[in-house]
Amino acid sequence: MDVMVLKVQKWLNDTYGQDSRFNRITEDGKTGWGTIYGLRRALQIELGIQETSNSFGPTTYSLCPTIAQGSEGNLVYIVQGGLWCKGYSPGGFNGYYGNGTYAAVKALKTDAGFPTASGNMQRDFMRALLDMSAFTCLSQGSEAVRTIQQQLNYNYYDYYQICPCDGLYNRDMNKMLIYALQKELGIPKSSATGTWGPTTISKCKEKSFSIGNSSPIVKLIRYALVCNGFSVSTSSSTYDSTLDTILKNFSNSLMINKPTNQCNYTVIKSLLSSNGDTSRSAKGCDTSTRLDQAKITTLKNNGYEVVGRYLTKVPNGLDKNMTPEEVELILSNGLSIFPIFQEYGGGNSAFSKTKGVNNGNSAYNAAVSLGIPSGTIIYFAVDYDPQTAEIQNYVVPYFEGFCESLSNSNKTNKYLVGVYGTRNVCKILTENTSSLGIDNLFVSDASYGFSGNLGFQMPKKWDLDQFATDISIGSGNGKISIDKVAVSGIFNGFNYVTKNTTDREKIYNTLKQLSTIAMEHTNNNRQKSNLLVAQYLRKKSSSYTGSIWDITGGALDESYKVKADKVDQSHEYNFKDPLTGEKYDFYHLMATFSAVLYLSNIPGFDLNWEVVDPLVDIFAGWGGDLTTFSKDLDNLDSNGKIHGDLQTYANNLICQAEGTSRFPLVDYIADIDAVVMGYLISNDDIAELFKDYFMYDKENISKHRTRMFVRNAYGDLERFSAAVNTFSEGLGFPIPEMLDILTYLKEAILANGEDLPERKYRDAGAAALINFVTNEFNSMR
Length: 781
What we know:
two-stranded antiparallel sheet
């Protein structure tokens, strides 16, 4: 506690505490923003301002008088209070502007870069006084930078304001450098903004300096080099060979093409902003647009060699993820890819260690499924402007979660963690290298206005530098919006994929582990063990959870789930069906399979079939799909979308690509495979059955699925057709042996806010299914 600061705080509260324009401050003897705000409001009250605020705004500035030696009163108290809070002793706190106060103000001005100024207090220095900025070199600062700050204040404060002289290159110093440049470019003070506007850019493009030239702008270039971490003399205004060499080193560090023996706009802009000359060329780019051949041709024609693409889609949002087909097309065109992970909007709420772990798992699974080789860097995005405290409290734990997830010993592929973010984000994360191990940086320099870029040096080691966004190139089908990315050469992306031939093997290995645990859990009861595994995998999809599925396939033993969750399942349960090439709906298979295993063994549900009751097949399989398909026909016809013959339309729609109707081919496959596997399982292990059914490419059981389904469940096509027609008729009137199933399906339809499909649509749907299955049956061996 500082006794003089405490005295200042007590005086403020005693003098202004009853004035509604003043907010009482904490009396703790510590200088902080609360005390500074109190001094500002006190000044505004003395100036007669009725609407006071915590800021030192233009009204306060315009009304603030010069307070000279010999003055007395509250204004002097405010000056003395500010001096004590700033660390300068005015010799007392008495409201009289004597020699002590005069000397203290003169010392402050000297530290600010005005060694010959008087000790009277003018409004420019009052604004600097009533602030938390320091005018002595801080422990993290450098005397070289502080000297530049003093020189900038002396020569250019009239264009901006008196800025800190703390030895730290920061936002204020960056703005001051740009104000100084604008003054030297001849831009009037009334038009100067301290930012790179169109006038500043156009005038700066007119400037170019060669060896032997002298100009105040050359001195500003020297200042900027020091601020960017390069050592050079700041006393000269001449462009010499030494300066040229250092500028060449700076340009090389940012992959900028500098003219020989010259400094031009491209170099100057990069010295004074994070994004630099956005018109410069680049080898790299990133885009959220899925690439086809036309767009890839546009990229190649514009000189791009490396493209950044996203690993996953945004949940309930933009579908921007890479696909295996896209990856293959990009690589076959000779481009390479750097993967980016981003599923969230900018803000602290998106960042925590738990979310880092979860996102790391998602990124890993996506990378593996795309065949991205081990050792590839995945850049995890911090796409907002967090302050230093926010980075420490939110972003660092988030990346701890990522690193923990990707370094898990159970993960076979080893991916490296990179970060996309501001210079400050990159700086802090690399400073945590001992705990995080992150040194691969994708710097978001295009966001030049972010506080995390203004006044921060470019990291010495960086992989990628995004310096321009939303650039449109190409035309017609080849038109695409990209962000420009400089590529340092540390990481040029991946240019090959690990062929994804082991997806089914990974699932088989996991099934073996889950089955082993289930056998132990059920005291070696194979039937119960298989059911447990199917139930567990069914519940991994939110589509097959809830009371309805517990009735259909049985409720999962939660104590088994705890054990099963410990098995590494970082891979996705995705594979291509060996017969059709469709992406297999594995969770659908497990949902129907668990129903087959569960319902076939419920007393009273069996109708004396040896293994799988056909009613179970209808109940958990094609019955529901056929009902919704018939309802689709009803809705489509009602909306005038069916043209021509209804039956022909139904035949062409059923069991086609996913998304065309609610009875796609993938659902048909999963439904009948579950029934066939129900006949084959007997006392076998579920993992071995999966292997036999799907993993022998030349002679796996799935190649005969339709024929086995019909023959095992119904005997022949005639009986299957009769079952389909009987079911379709039963939706209109009850059939005793189907009563429970039909009642359930009717209630499900009605609960979904739909009516039962009319008879003609049920008949069309039934005929379409019979036609499809007949064709499949006859085409198989």
